[in-house]
Amino acid sequence: MKKLTRLSNTSCAAGALMVSALVPLLVSVLGFAPLVLADDDLTSQTKVEVETLINSSLASNLGFSIIESLTTEVGQRQAGSEAEARARDWGVAKFKALGFKNVRIEPFEVDYWQRNAEHAEIISPFPQKLMITALGGSVATDAAGVTGAIVRFATLQDLQDAPLTGLQGKIVFVDEPMTRTQDGSGYGVAVRKRSGAAAEAGKRGAVAALIRSVGTDHHRFPHTGQMRYAADVPKVPIAALSAPDADQLQRALSRGQIEVKLVLDVQSMGKRWSGNVVGEIPGQTDEIVIIGGHLDSWDLGTGAVDDGAGIGITVAAAKMIMDLNKKPKRTIRVVMFGAEEVGLVGAKAYAEQHKSELDKHMVGAESDFGAGKVWRFETRFAEEKLGIAEQMHRLLAPLGIARGANTASGGPDMGPLRQLGMPVVTLKQNGWDYFDLHHTADDTLDKINPEDVAQNVAAYAAFVWMSANLKGDFRAD
């Protein structure tokens, strides 16, 4: 890396005049002002250590090994379930075996919902089975199920615009597809039907709702996920159809009226314990760099890409740092968040428990978008601290990582802390096929490439070490 050189005293005035003259032109032409970098906030020693971390991480299989351990020894990990409790025990044991300090579980309660059985079929005029899965939080049908004529809506908005009468006794079908994108931006639009279809159907007297799965695949693996009911609206059962079955139902409807029978045997079991599992690399100060993934998963697959990958990546990155045998300036905290899938319950519990030390949380990042390679470095720093971001990016760039915008989310479980003012980073992964697997029975270890995991570990290890040792911080002065 080249060091920035200082302007001589005699050239400073001329340089300042040139910059002041060029700024209005650049603002008008490019839409933004040029970034003027200060002296490096990263020492030469830190840069050498980052290079060491990147090389050792790329040569290591630890991240993949941790994912393999979690998905094999625990498997699916529904929030509030006995399996999630075993996952917490696994997390404590893994942290301790790897040498982390201050290992602990920070408990909280969560509503536990359980899937028992599910079945759907066209009963007339073309009898055949349909592949479905109940959405998390759905109410059950009675034992005999519900039967009704299908009324199709191309989008959730079409259903919302429909009259409040005319759907009594019917089954609503929201057939809105999801757009495949590298950054997952199609999800925000598509997921609205998962959250809203049951409430809109209930308002209109329907007996049930079906949606096209929130996914981008064409396999007969329906996608589950959390749904929501509205207050003072009748609760109707809701399930997701696999994409091929949604296509099949659409074709059948083109031939006339279709009746479907839906049976959902699901239960809301009340409050159960969940928790966040925490491990640390103590620093010279009590300032904190926080990273992690979420420990829970849905119950259909083994939660490899969502989010065993994030656990493996962040734990391994911290372990690579630990193996430097150098005490960081700031404490590095790794959190395996519980109960993310059902509404960021663990993230909210963490933010509430640690709000008194928010000012000590210098920056955070979560890995929760699968196991594809990191391709973009996004930040959410104070504008005057973007020079630091540029310095960090230079060291990440050899991994094939581009500089992104200053609008990072930090990942779902960083949301509550970000909203309280903590700076965040997103090491954006290639999610081109993420929503082929997300929340399905197909979310299994064989979908993960160990070399891609190693690149993620390298990126996280480098980012965390820089953040833990830089001279400044990321908040406004």
Write a structural description.
With 477 residues, the chain is α/β, with parallel strands linked by helices. The chain folds into two domains: 266 residues, 3-Layer(aba) Sandwich (Aminopeptidase), CATH 3.40.630.10; 132 residues, Glucose Oxidase, domain 1. It has 13 helices and 14 strands. Strand 12, helix 10 and strand 13 form a beta-alpha-beta unit. Helix 3 crosses helix 8 and helix 8 crosses helix 13. The chain is elongated, with a radius of gyration of 25 Å.
Structural class: alpha/beta
The CATH superfamily of the largest domain bears the name Zn peptidases
> Nearest-angstrom radius of gyration?
25 Å
Number of domains: 2
Q: Name the shape in a single word.
A: elongated
CATH top level label of the largest domain = Alpha Beta
Order of helices and strands: HHHHEEEEHEHEEHEEHEHEEHEHEHH
CATH topology label of the largest domain: Aminopeptidase
| % residues in beta strands | 15-25%
CATH architecture field of the largest domain = 3-Layer(aba) Sandwich
Number of strands: 14
The major pleated sheet works out as: 11 strands, mixed
Mean pLDDT: 93
